[in-house]
Amino acid sequence: MVHLHYQAAESGFPSVRSIEPIGLYLSQHWHVVAYCRLRQSFRDFRLDRIQHLTLDTETFAARPETLQDYWATEAKRRSREKVVIRFRRTEVLPALAQHLLDTRHQYGWMHDQSQADGSVDMTFLVGSLPYLATWLIPYASGVTILEPPALQQHLRELAKRVYEHWC
């Protein structure tokens, strides 16, 4: 059994959890998916939010659920919105362009469609437009939002906040 003091992003103080891990994965941060005895359900814990961890001698029977089961359940639970952007690699520094290509999977990327002018239309299914906007803002003129218009508004608001802070 694993016992941990966990600081959730939305909580002001850590909670004590006893968990039965089923797997680890990397998505910008390391995560452990585990059955949480406190919540009586499977949960996703970011490793960098674990303040203290102990192991004891208590054992538990392996559960039949896998990481793939957990992700499939989460995908059904969370609504997703289709986003289409046009990416012009030549508009950004090569390292930044490569970063977009390397990290797109973490933001709900589904597929690409090459355009005659060398740009690429990228389709995503996302759960949070504001979250996606924070990822896209560094690409500035290298990205055009084709849909939905609400994402353009989130980017405008972010750009305004950056401008007001620095200018």
Distance between the termini: 52 Å
> In the CATH classification, which architecture of the largest domain applies?
2-Layer Sandwich
Give the count of structural domains.
2
Q: Count of DSSP E strands?
A: 9
Q: SS-based structural class?
A: alpha+beta
Highest-level CATH class of the largest domain: Alpha Beta
Mean pLDDT across the residues is: 93
Describe the protein in words.
The chain has helices at residues 67-77, 94-103, 129-136, 149-166, and strands at 2-6, 15-27, 29-36, 41-46, 50-55, 81-87, 109-114, 120-126, 143-147. β1 (2-6) and β2 (15-27) form a beta hairpin. The radius of gyration is 20 Å and the shape is elongated. It has two domains: 2-77, no CATH class; 81-166, Alpha-Beta Plaits, CATH 3.30.70. The longest helix is centred in the C-terminal third of the chain and has 18 residues, at 149-166. It has 167 residues and is of the alpha+beta class. It contains four helices and nine strands.
